[in-house]
Specification:
The complex is a heterodimer of chains A (94) and B (105). Helix content of chain A is 34%, strand content 24%. Chain A is an alpha+beta fold. In chain B, β3 (72-75) and β4 (78-81) form a beta hairpin. The chains are: A alpha+beta (94), B alpha+beta (105).
Chain lengths: 94, 105
């Protein structure tokens, strides 16, 4: 399975569960090549996601919603995931 | 002792505890390093558990806390978050307030 397939599966699951208006998934696995956590073959990713569904949720609950959407991919494909989860209003300049 | 019971006692027995890869002195992962440094910068004492040295805890804490990755920071028995949330809270000053309130309670 290629790295881009994996990102496509992540995007599909997040899209399905959270209906984001903005979603960027960046593969940062190369930054961690060779360290202990990289030996499993699972990747390191950075996610920027904007969704109305985060409205009224604290950061902890937003991150849990992301983890829940990704489901078993957190065990099988993803070693580390850095998350920035915002509502559409929070992305507006103040 | 059952591992779930051991996790529960660790979380309840320490006002502030971080479950991390490695130790604050010798972190084995950049995310664990950043979170433990943020706690240290709050000027409070905190406990740590090296999950690389305790495979049972590494395996079972995610089920206990409903949180799949490490590090995990608990204050007053509650999951505060992983690296991203702890760093956001540190930058806003909220982590310092929460940690100092817990340490001085």
């Amino acid at each position: 399975m290629s790295a881009s397939d994996r990102i496509e599966r992540m995007r599909a699951r997040l899209h399905q569960a959270l209906r984001p208006t903005v979603m960027d998934v960046v593969d940062e696995s190369h930054l961690h090549a060779g360290h202990v956590g990289a030996q499993s073959g699972r990747g390191h990713y950075r996610l920027h996601i904007v969704s109305r569904q985060f409205e009224g949720l604290l950061p902890l609950a937003r991150h849990r919603a992301v983890y829940e959407a990704l489901g078993e991919m957190m065990q099988t494909d993803i070693h580390a995931l850095s998350i920035q989860a915002l509502t559409p209003e929070e992305t507006q300049p103040r | 002792m059952d591992v779930m019971e051991r996790i529960k006692q660790t979380i309840e027995g320490n006002r502030i505890v971080i479950f991390m890869k490695g130790t604050p002195q010798f972190p084995q992962c950049g995310f664990s390093m950043r979170a433990s440094q943020a706690l240290a910068a709050c000027g409070v004492e905190f406990a740590h558990v090296d999950v690389l040295a305790d495979p049972d805890v590494r395996q079972n804490l995610p089920r206990f806390s409903n949180w799949p990755t490490f590090p995990q920071v608990f204050i007053n028995g509650e999951l505060v978050g992983g690296c991203d949330i702890v760093m956001e809270m540190y930058q806003s000053g909220e982590l310092q307030r929460l940690a100092q309130a817990a340490a001085n309670a």
